[in-house]
Design goal:
- The chain has 115 residues and is an alpha+beta fold.
- The chain has one domain.
- The protein has 3 helices and 7 strands; from the N terminus they run αβββββββαα.
- It has a 4-stranded mixed beta sheet, with no helix packed on it.
- A hairpin with a 2-residue loop joins strand 4 and strand 5.
- Helix 2 runs antiparallel to helix 3.
Length: 115
């Protein structure tokens, strides 16, 4: 079993399709998992030229406990400059939820962090 398979068990289903784990820390009473959105532009902008422009501010989400310790996800969502329109764009999690096999729970989780 590789690390990705192991992390896929611990993290919300489907999250590793869009995010990569950048850091993990373990404290006395909690686990901290840091996730950054992969630099894979959203499908709805496939015909436009997008350039990564970094990340939105990191948000913190408490997830289910692991081995009796609290677990926190520190999530950085990516943004892109649409050079065709000049607008900043990000992934539309409503579209992702309809077009993937992720659970409704995970889709709701991603919609919540989009707000």
């Amino acid at each position: 079993m590789d690390n990705t398979s192991f992390l896929d068990i611990l993290l919300p289903e489907g999250i590793l399709n869009y995010f990569e784990v950048t850091q993990f820390t373990k404290g006395e009473a909690r686990f901290n998992i840091y996730l950054s959105e992969k630099n894979v532009p959203p499908n709805e902008f496939a015909s436009d030229k997008l350039t990564s422009k970094g990340f939105y501010d990191e948000i913190t989400v408490q997830d289910f406990p692991i081995r009796g310790k609290a677990s926190y996800l520190y999530i950085k969502r990516r943004r892109w400059l649409n050079e065709t329109t000049g607008n900043i764009v990000c992934r539309d999690w409503d579209m992702v939820a309809k077009g993937t096999r992720m659970t409704q729970e995970f889709a709701s989780f991603l919609k919540a962090i989009s707000r």
